[in-house]
Amino acid sequence: MLPSFLVIGAQKSGSTFLLRCLAEHPDLYMPRHETRFFEDPEYLSGDISKLESLFDHLPPGKVIGIKRPDYLAKPECPERIRRHIPDAKLIVVLRDPVERAISSYFYQIRQGFIPIKPLEQGIRAIFRGEYQRAYPKSAEIIEYGFYHSHLTRYLEHFGRGQLLILLFELIKKEPLEALRQVYRFLDVDERHVPELLAKGGAVNRGVYSLTRLRLLTIANSLRFTYNENRTRRYRKCPPLLSKVFARTVDWLDAKLLTRICENSRPVLSGELKERLVDVYRDDLDRLEELLGEPLPSLKLYSAGLRAREMSDTLNPPSAPPGLASH
Questions:
Q1: What is the CA angle 308-311-316, rounded to 5?
Q2: How confident is the model at residue 304 (pLDDT cuts 50, 70, 90)?
Q3: Integer angstrom CA distances of residue 186 from 71, 88, 179, 259, 267
Q4: b/e map of 237-257 (b: 16 or more CB within 10 Å)?
Q5: 97-117: per-residue pLDDT in tens?
Q6: CA 270 to CA 267: how far, in whole Å?
Q7: Where are the domains of the chain?
Q8: What would be the CATH architecture of the domain defined by 5-96+145-198?
Q9: 221: pLDDT confidence band, cut at 50, 70 and 90?
Q10: CA torsion 45→48→49→53, rounded to 10°?
Q11: pLDDT tens-digit profile of 15-53?
Q12: What does the alpha-carbon distance between residue 144 and residue 104 come to, in Å, rounded to a whole number?
């Protein structure tokens, strides 16, 4: 058996929440972890039996899906998915790309792919290309937000009716409505309400405290090894002492540091916000044309900058003392 639907992105846009909810539906089956089969280097000469083996144990009648939010931005994936699953249904969740980039930055720190630096300093380093050689995965922080470019590649291989595009803001504000749209798209009972919603519906809470991140990356170093260019990590079998220490770190973070460390989401300077907005502006305009509808929830930062500019125009700042005109 092969999956009939895939949650392909975007990264840091609510796909884990979607996976947890869909996995609770009695008509559906999704592996708990991400499935990397269609991207390099996992895709070895198209040996589809490796993917099929994940579902050999299932009874007939289950609607099978997989999740890998990196698929959306990986140029090699659309053709491979179509080759093996031409009738696949594809689910995409889109988030304001500036917000997504900020979440991705801290996610990459936690995963050990980039150095632990304050947001402002790190984003500037990425723009200057300082991470490109030693930390090539850092390029994904910006690149993964070009939604029009990524979706266009998929539409070269799949019909528009095979894609369901959801907005992160809908999942955030009306999660049950978002899920019902997915259920209808997959032709399963849309009356199902997952228990996760009753528990508050939060998964993968972001970690923004650099103190916590330093500790968590120590635990990661005991659990994972990295490839040569630090773009992939692989779970290793650590000695018992290392395993105990890593779990102790997790416990300290959950029980102590979450209470005493400030974990507010950092705010970018106006100049860097504006630069990121400019980076994505043309792509978002083309995305609106492609989908035939305005997408204000993908332009939250743009709207904020426009409001600030209008306020400055209507209420110009007072001249500093001693510089008032006479």
A1: 115
A2: low
A3: 19, 10, 11, 41, 38
A4: ebeeeeeeebeebeeebeeeb
A5: 999 999 999 999 999 999 999
A6: 9
A7: 5-96+145-198, 209-263
A8: 3-Layer(aba) Sandwich (3.40)
A9: confident
A10: 130
A11: 999 999 999 999 999 999 999 999 988 897 778 999 999
A12: 9
| pLDDT tens for each residue of 175-205 | 999 999 999 999 999 999 999 987 776 667 8
C-alpha distances in Å from residue 248, one per residue of 219, 253, 314:
9, 9, 55
With contact defined as beta carbons under 8 Å apart, do 301 and 96 qualify? yes
**Strand 233-235, strand 5-9: pairing:** unpaired
Q: Which two tokens stand for residue 146?
A: 């070009």
Tell me how far apart the 2 most distant CA atoms of the chain are, in Å. 85
pTM of the entire predicted model = 0.89
